[in-house]
Design goal:
The structure holds two protein chains of two kinds.
Chain A: E1 7-11, H1 19-27, E2 36-40, H2 48-54, E3 58-62, E4 67-71
Parallel strand pairs in A: 1-2
Antiparallel strand pairs in A: 2-4, 3-4
Chain B: E1 2-4, H1 14-36, H2 41-44, H3 49-79, H4 86-109, H5 112-136, H6 145-174, H7 181-212, H8 222-240, H9 246-272, H10 281-305, H11 316-352, H12 364-367, H13 370-393, H14 396-422, E2 437-438
Helix pairs in contact in B: 1-3, 1-4, 1-14, 3-4, 3-5, 3-7, 3-11, 4-5, 5-6, 6-7, 6-8, 7-8, 7-9, 7-11, 8-9, 9-10, 10-11, 10-13, 11-13, 11-14, 13-14
Classes of the chains: A alpha+beta, B mainly alpha.
Chain lengths: ~80, ~450
């Protein structure tokens, strides 16, 4: 983790659609530019991705541990 | 595997998918009306025109229409595939909506000219569907390989079943070869088990864990069930076309039951491990449909045994009961349960996702009424049980009464789905953002 960066963790396991999507979209509202939202998922939230990008966020999803990381992309 | 933005997934528009799901109960309504007005000839043979018309209304008009909408939605949304053209899907719906009622009417009237024209139009609808459906399920996500494989094989079986069906229509008009009961049975089982069955099985492997929140247990028998069912549907269907004797029919019936039995064991294991103990309409529908599947398997063996279990003068009785349990009870109730989850999610996604995180939004429980959905499901289940009983016992009034209730249930189903799509939904109260957030 980079200095000054905070990981905010969210456990979205055991929830029915669309609650995981709602909780992520609620959680990123207060995300500082240097923060990352790390979410434990039951399955890949494919339909969330376009909405994250529409709101200016980038994401990475790891299949093996079903973890989604959401963050504000830095300046190019 | 790690995936990074930008996104590649997309959900088709609501007005593309919803018409298929809203129209599907109308096919079941037509089947109900056809059997509610039948006479005793329904028991004489399974292939009397009214039985054939009701079967095709339920399968092509009802269940296939619903599955088409589900594939258009779940392919891009779950499997990560893409539709070739939204316009093509809309044209396909129009083609399907016109050609299927015409085909059902032609089957009822045994009008060979219209039957040929309408069957060709139905086949064109299938081809247009496949142009979009194949790339829709063609995503690269390994996690959903089971559902992709089942739906992929099922699409292949749709091609085989449709091709045989159009050949039967052609031979009725041009007398190329006789359409025996065996050939009809082969066509019917490829459609029921190969197309509808495999689709239901594959989609259930995805949706049952998702909606019932199964986290700690994985499906064990999925690939075995797929292999056994695919081989039995294709091989058994072809073997039935040779009009085999009793021993052959019993072997085919057992082989056709084996794959769904493996699948049912897997689904019951998954449901037993669910975190969400209270069943909603989808979970209840799954349990009830499994019960009908079990009855269909037993009736399938009875029908395969033939005389003396079947009265030669009323051979259609148990065959009709078998079809009602397999088509309506297993596949139909699974569709009904899932329709009350897929349609509300579609409406939520297209109407409320923009608002999520910015203010209170309705949740799925606010978009559909689980009590109404359960009433509809119960009406369907009672109707189908009464129909199967009436058919099996050869009681015309009982069959007609059950079919009338089926028509009522299908009307209520169509109305409640339309209400979900068109009615405004009250926003839930704002929930705390921080629940489950750990810093």
């Amino acid at each position: 983790m980079l200095t000054g960066m905070t990981d905010i963790q969210l456990d979205n396991r055991g929830l029915q659609p669309p609650e995981p999507m709602v909780r992520i979209l609620e959680a990123i509202r207060g995300l500082a530019p240097a923060d990352r939202l790390v979410v434990l998922m039951d399955r890949e939230p494919i339909l969330l991705y376009p909405e994250l990008e529409r709101r200016g966020f980038a994401w990475a999803y790891v299949d093996d541990d079903r973890t989604l990381t959401v963050f504000k992309p830095g300046p190019a | 595997m790690i995936r990074l933005s930008p996104a590649t997934a997309s959900s088709p528009p609501l007005n593309l998918v919803a018409p298929f799901l809203l129209a599907a109960p109308l096919g079941l309504l037509a089947a109900g009306l056809l059997l509610a007005t039948t006479d005793a000839s329904a028991f004489a043979a399974i292939n009397v025109p009214r039985n054939v018309a009701a079967t095709h209304a339920a399968i092509i008009g009802g269940l296939t229409t619903g599955i088409m909408g589900a594939v258009y939605q779940l392919g891009p949304a779950v499997l990560g595939g893409r539709l070739v053209s939204h316009t093509l899907a809309r044209i396909q719906f129009a083609f399907h909506a016109v050609s299927v009622p015409l085909f059902v009417w032609a089957l009822l009237e045994r009008n060979l000219t219209f039957m040929s024209a309408a069957a060709m139009a139905v086949l064109v609808s299938f081809v247009l569907f496949l142009v979009n459906a194949v790339p829709a399920i063609g995503g690269l996500r390994k996690a959903n390989a089971v559902m992709r494989a089942y739906v992929g094989v099922a699409l292949g079986m749709l091609v085989v079943t449709g091709s045989l069906g159009i050949t039967w229509v052609g031979t009725l008009q041009h007398l190329w070869f006789p359409v025996t009961m065996g050939r009809l049975a082969g066509h019917a089982h490829m459609g029921l088990l190969g197309w509808l069955g495999l689709t239901v099985m594959g989609v259930s492997y995805q949706l049952v864990p998702m909606f019932n929140v199964v986290q700690k247990r994985q499906a064990r028998l999925a690939w075995w069930a797929l292999a056994v069912t695919s081989i039995a549907a294709l091989g058994g269907g072809l073997a039935l076309m040779t009009d085999p004797g009793r021993e052959g029919r019993l072997v085919i019936a057992a082989a056709m039951a084996a794959g769904p039995a493996l699948w049912a064991m897997d689904i019951l294991r998954l449901l037993a491990a669910r975190s969400r103990r209270t069943l909603d309409v989808q979970g209840r529908a799954t349990f009830v449909s499994l019960g009908f599947l079990g009855v269909a398997m037993v009736l399938g063996m009875v029908v395969a045994f033939g005389k003396p279990l079947l009265d030669p003068g009323q051979a259609g009785r148990w065959q009709l009961a078998y079809g009602i349990c397999g088509i309506g009870g297993w596949v139909g109730l699974t569709f009904v349960g899932n329709s009350f989850k897929i349609v509300p999610f579609l409406v939520w996604y297209h109407r409320y996702r923009f608002l999520a995180g910015r203010g209170p939004v309705p949740m799925i429980s606010d978009v559909y009424n689980d009590r109404v959905a359960n009433i509809v499901l119960t009406a369907y289940a009672v109707a189908l049980a009464v129909m199967a009983l009436g058919a099996g016992l050869g009681e015309l009034s009982v069959l007609r009464g059950g079919a009338g209730l089926l028509a009522v249930a299908a009307t209520a189903h169509a109305g409640s789905l339309a209400h979900i799509v068109f009615a405004p939904h009250a926003a839930a109260t704002a929930r705390p953002v921080g629940r489950g957030v750990l810093r």
